[in-house]
Structures are given as structure tokens and as C-alpha cells.
Design a protein that fits this description.
about 40% helix, 3 helices, 3-stranded mixed β-sheet, 5 strands, Peptidase M56 BlaR1, 2 domains
Amino acid sequence: MKLAFPILVGRILIAGGILTAGILLGTIAAESTIALTEKSSKAVTVYPKNENGDTYGSAFHASTNEEKPDLIEAVGEDGVTGYIRKKDLDGDMPKTPEEATALMNKQQAEGPRQIPLYEKDGKTVIGTFTAGETKPVDTKEE
């Protein structure tokens, strides 16, 4: 029985070492996966530039307005595909909630806006794009 105790202790130490190594390797792998996922989720789309230095392409993958290209791909009237300028689409951006409400109500009263639709050079007008319709905002609190 004297030999059984050292063998048992040896097996316990080996099993403990294997378990510890597995936990360490699993932790390292998990941290690497999380880091890669965070890095890829923060990736920004790189848009091509035209001869005038304007970026152009689809705004589909842009998560913020700043990430959108200068010329955003759009389908205009009569199904013509081209590009609209981001600044034309944005218009004057309100600085306060009150300005935003007033702007939305003004746009509702005036109706949809017509925006020039360009070739990718950003100069050649090939049609028009109708900016979406808005609904009036009720500013009365209940």
C-alpha cells in the first residue's frame, strides 16, 4: 500500500496540471476572439475617390453620418442610379430639439425635396432624387 499513495498523488498532480493548462489556453483563446471581434466591428469602410477627391459609394455599412461617403449611391426618379451629395441630403442640421421640430414641420409643409442626382464625378447631373417625406411633430406635452 506504500506505493499506491505516491502514484495517486502523482496522478492528481498531473490531472491538476492538465486542467490548469486547459483553463489558461481557453482564456487566451477567448480573449483573442473577443479582441478580433471588437476590432472587426469597429472597421470603417474605405470608399474610393473620384477625380475631384470626393468619396463615393453605398452608405449601407456606415454606422454614423460621418462614416458616409461624400457622394451616396441612390436611385432617383425613373429608376436612374447615381449619387447624391451627403451635404444636399443632410441640409441644414438643427442644433437644438426646437430647431429640429421646426425644420421637420417646415419640410412637411413644403413637401419632399428634390436633390440633384450626379454621376460619380459629382458634377454631371443625371437626374433628381426625392428626399423622403416627413410627418409633422407634435410639440405639445400631455
